[in-house]
Write a structure and sequence with these properties.
154 residues; alpha+beta; four-stranded mixed β-sheet; 4 helices; 44% helix
C-alpha cells in the first residue's frame, strides 16, 4: 500500500508539464500567425495606396511604418524593411506592375526551438492604376507617374 502513495503526484506533475508545453507552443504559434497576418495586411494596403498613383513612395512607406509599429502586435521599427516601387522583369515595363515588400526579422527564442525562419516576408504585386479623376485630389494631390520612384526586384 505504501508504494502507491506518490503515483498520483508523479502523474499530476507529468500532466502539468505537458500542459504548459502545449500552452507555450500555442501562444508562440499564435504570435507568429498574427505577425504574418499584419505583414500581409500592410503589403496589400501599401500596394493599393501606391498603385492608385495618388501617394508617393515616401508617403506609402511612412504610412506602412506607422501601421506596423502601432496596434497589436506592435512590430519593432528597427527590424522592419519596407520596399515600395516598380517591379521590373520580362514584360513588366509594358504592363507597369508595382510591388510592395515588407520584411520583419524577429528575435524571439520561439524561432530557435521550432526551426521556423525568423525573417517573415510578404510581398504584393499589383498593376499600376490608370490615371483617373482630376489632376489634383483634395486629399492626396496630383497623380504620380509610373516612371517615378525606385525599382524593386523580386
Amino acid at each position: 500500500m505504501k508504494a502507491n502513495q506518490g503515483q498520483a503526484l508523479i502523474e499530476v506533475v507529468a500532466f502539468l508539464m505537458a500542459l504548459i508545453l502545449m500552452i507555450v507552443c500555442f501562444l508562440g504559434f499564435t504570435k507568429w500567425f498574427l505577425v504574418k497576418q499584419k505583414l500581409l495586411s500592410a503589403t496589400r494596403q501599401g500596394a493599393m495606396l501606391y498603385s492608385s498613383g495618388r501617394m508617393s513612395e515616401r508617403d506609402v512607406k511612412r504610412h506602412l511604418r506607422r501601421y506596423l509599429t502601432t496596434g497589436s502586435p506592435a512590430l519593432v521599427e528597427g527590424r522592419l524593411s519596407i520596399q515600395v516601387g516598380h517591379r521590373i522583369g520580362f514584360q513588366d515595363v509594358l504592363d507597369q506592375f508595382d510591388i510592395v515588400k515588407v520584411r520583419y526579422t524577429s528575435q524571439s527564442p520561439w524561432y530557435q526551438y521550432t526551426h521556423l525562419n525568423p525573417t517573415l516576408e510578404e510581398k504584393c504585386i499589383i498593376k499600376h492604376a490608370a490615371t483617373y479623376g482630376p489632376d489634383v485630389q483634395p486629399l492626396y494631390g496630383p497623380a504620380v507617374s509610373w516612371w517615378t520612384g525606385s525599382i524593386v526586384r523580386d
